Amino acid sequence: HIDWQQRVVLDNSSNNDNISILIDPDGVLYRPVERYPVSESFKNPEPAQNIIYIKRNGFDDAKSWTMSIIGNDSVFNNIISNGVGAPPDSVVWDWTISKKGEPKMFLAPNNNYSLKFEIEKSTGGKKIFKSQHNISVRQQQHIEAIENMLLVEFVFDESAPLSKYLERRLFNFASIFVARADSGYKQSAEIQGHTDNIGTERRNSELSAQRAKREYNIMREYIAHFAGVDENKLDNWLKSHNCSLSFRGYASQKPYTLRGKLLGDNDSPYGRSINRRVTLKYEYGK
Prior knowledge:
Helix content is 22%, strand content 30%. By secondary structure, the chain is α+β, with helices and mostly antiparallel strands.
C-alpha cells in the first residue's frame, strides 16, 4: 500500500517482486506538483557607478599603475583598474569583480575589504599604498509579492468540494507559509469564498462564507502542524511571526478571472461551475 501523500521512489533495490500501482485519475488531475525551496532574489540590477578619487603628490613619471580590491585575509585580490603612465585623478568602479574568462559578479556582502594602489616607477621599483579604512557591502533586500490561488471548487449549493485532492494545495501552501514565517517574512493570507449568481444574495453570502471557513479551518490545522504548535495557540504564533490568516465570503461579487480574462461567466454552466470556488489571496514581503 502506498500513501498518496508521500513521494515514493521505486528502484531495482526494492525487495518486492510484485508491485501493483493504481492510478486515480482524480488525483492525477488535481494533486498539485510539490514546490521545493528556491532562492527568492532580484535579478541582477544595473550596477551603481561609484567614483574613487585619488589624491597624490608626484609620480608623474610613473611607468604604470594598478588599483585592486583585496580581502583582509590577503588571499583575495582582484584588479579594479590599471593603466600606463601617471595615475589618474579618479577611477569609476561598479562594485563588481571579474576573473579571466568568467562573468562579472558583485562583491560578496558582509565581508571587509581594502583598496590597494600599486605604482611601478619608471626608474625601477614599486610603491604600494593601502586604504586606511575597510570597505564593505551591506546587502539590503526587499521582496514583495501577491499571489492568487484557486484552492477548491464546490458542488452547487453545498459547502462540499468536488474533489478532496484539491485540498492538498492547502497542505503544500501551509508548509511554505511556515517556512517563510521562520525566515522573517511578513505574510497575509485571506481565504475567499465565492458562489455563482443563482439564488438569493443572502443565501450566496452565507454559502460563500461557509465554504471559506471550511478551508480556513483546514488551513489552520496544517499551519499549526508545520509550526509545531497546538491549534489553540496558533493565533499567538501568527502574531509573533507578523502573519495573519483570515477568511471572507464574497457571494457572487467576484466572478473568476485569470490574467484579466473572465472565465466565470455566469451565463454559462461552465462559468457558474468555476465560480463556485474558494481562492486564496496571499501577500508576503521582507
